[in-house]
# Entry
Amino acid sequence: MSRPVKCRMICQFPQTLEFIPSGNNENGKTDNETIILTVDEYETIRLIDKEGLSQEQCCRRMQVARTTVQKIYDSARKKLAEALVDGHPLKIEGGEYRLCNGQNRSCGIDECYKQEIYQAYQKSKGETIMRIAVTYENGQIFQHFGHTEQFKLYDTEDGKIVSSEVLSTNGQGHGALAEVLSAIQADVLICGGIGGGAQNALASAGIHLYAGVTGDADAAVEALLAGTLSYNPNVQCGHHGGGQHGESCGSHSEHHQGEGHECRHGRCTD
# Structure
């Protein structure tokens, strides 16, 4: 029986998930096979090459052995070289990892922006309350998740709104907004366009996503509670580097909610 794979800790999901070289054919595709860079491989590139950490520091961040980090990093560098030299499309997905939740210094960093977010936005709620967050601007659903400056929060119980308030994001960047929603214990997000990386982060936090919704925020929440909300689970927003070839921001149609991306294979051990 093989030994279970230990999950590699990652700080956040990449915001850009797909890179396609120029010189594609008329259908926007290349003849080269797409190279898949796993999320944990991406994390070693981010930590070592972007942040300048040593492999020893990287292994502490990812909470695995140095030999494991070396193997992941070598694989990542080889894939990047093949994509750059041979002109392969590159896509980031899959791997064996778990997302740092920013609580109790689970990432091993004393000064972590996620910890600051949880301290600033922590908001309790009753056990029977479902909390719905909506990207918000002047009564309407704001169409670009990564640039939203406000969420409107609705606490609902037994299918009815019992309270609501507008919360400022205080200029948090798109990479931190999923953490804000997690800190305030949102169960649901209604929004317009949203990138693939943010979708992955929300799915990891257990937040149900209803994207591609337009119009009045209050009316959208009422429609959700009534089971009549029109939305598009495949919508993507190119304004935040989602890098996907999906629907543009704000388009919507009738669909059922799909499962969140990145099940992380279900084979990791804590």
About this structure: Confidence is low (pLDDT under 50) at residues 239-267. DSSP finds seven helices and 13 strands in the chain. The longest helix spans residues 66-86.
